[in-house]
Design goal:
The chain is an all-alpha fold. It has one domain: 23S rRNA-intervening sequence (de novo design (two linked rop proteins)). It has four helices and no strands. α1 runs antiparallel to α2, α1 runs antiparallel to α4 and α2 packs antiparallel against α3. It is elongated and about 45 Å long. The chain starts with 10 loop residues before the first helix and ends in an 11-residue tail after the last helix. The model has no long low-confidence stretch (mean pLDDT 94).
């Protein structure tokens, strides 16, 4: 963690951002643009993944960062579920469906590995422990 100075440097945040861009693209360029409830849900959950990674990092404490990483992973599960719903509603083709699911699975694995890494590391953040 010592070489990471900003959340933008985290590979998991970069991947979450790319996923969010893909979701944004399908909400603009497919029939999902007219399915307002589902569109808002998938935009919200995919954005929540990257936002929770960022917020946890900025809290400057290991315990809080881990908590926000777990929340981000949960939001990623929501995004994956909403991807199934988007496909089932006929808004995306099978290729885009599989691409989004693979992105979700890969990112979930990376977040899990990062959580394990942090649990096992001596990193504590910059927050004062006794404050």
């Amino acid at each position: 963690m010592a070489t990471i100075k900003r959340f933008e440097d985290l590979e998991i945040w970069q991947d979450a951002r790319n996923l969010c861009k893909k979701v944004r693209d399908i909400t603009v360029n497919t029939g999902l643009s007219r399915d307002f409830a589902l569109k808002n849900q998938i935009l919200g959950s995919s954005g929540s993944v990257m936002d929770n990674i960022a917020e946890g990092f900025e809290r400057d404490g290991k315990k809080e960062f881990l908590n926000f990483l777990h929340i981000a992973k949960g939001s990623l599960g929501e995004t994956r579920s909403q991807t199934h719903r988007t496909y089932d509603a006929g808004h995306i083709n099978e290729g885009k469906y599989n691409e989004l699911l693979n992105d979700c699975f890969n990112l979930s694995g990376k977040i899990s590995h990062f959580i394990t890494y942090l649990h096992n590391s001596t990193y504590e953040g910059t927050k004062k422990r006794d404050a």
